[in-house]
Amino acid sequence: MAKAKLTFADIGVTVTVPAGTRIIEVSEKVGAGIVYGCRESDCGTCLTEVVSGMENLSEASIFERTTLAEKKAGPNMRLACQTLVLGDATIKPGY
Ligand code: FES
């Protein structure tokens, strides 16, 4: 199975995960500063800034894009509860 390195810039931790892992599954385990509310792409609490590797993340669903637009999120922002890691990326909390 393909692997991906996900780096949490806020705490300086890099973990190797199977490609297809959702960010939320890792961020809580490592103690990163991303916080969660609904976990269903509704609230936008898990807004996450992608420092690098946006091309290595899953495509945003219409539901995620709607919430990102409501939050006036920039093009480098994603929702950690929805985004799958497909290759190497570096992220940090979006708030
Ligand atoms: S936790 Fe609510 S949008 Fe991700």
UniProtKB/TrEMBL annotation:
<protein>
    <submittedName>
        <fullName>Ferredoxin-4 (Ferredoxin IV) (FdIV) (Ferredoxin, plant-type)</fullName>
    </submittedName>
</protein>
<dbReference type="GO" id="GO:0051536">
    <property type="term" value="F:iron-sulfur cluster binding"/>
</dbReference>
<dbReference type="InterPro" id="IPR001041">
    <property type="entry name" value="2Fe-2S_ferredoxin-type"/>
</dbReference>
<dbReference type="InterPro" id="IPR012675">
    <property type="entry name" value="Beta-grasp_dom_sf"/>
</dbReference>
<feature type="domain" description="2Fe-2S ferredoxin-type">
    <location>
        <begin position="2"/>
        <end position="95"/>
    </location>
</feature>
<dbReference type="InterPro" id="IPR036010">
    <property type="entry name" value="2Fe-2S_ferredoxin-like_sf"/>
</dbReference>
<dbReference type="Pfam" id="PF00111">
    <property type="entry name" value="Fer2"/>
</dbReference>
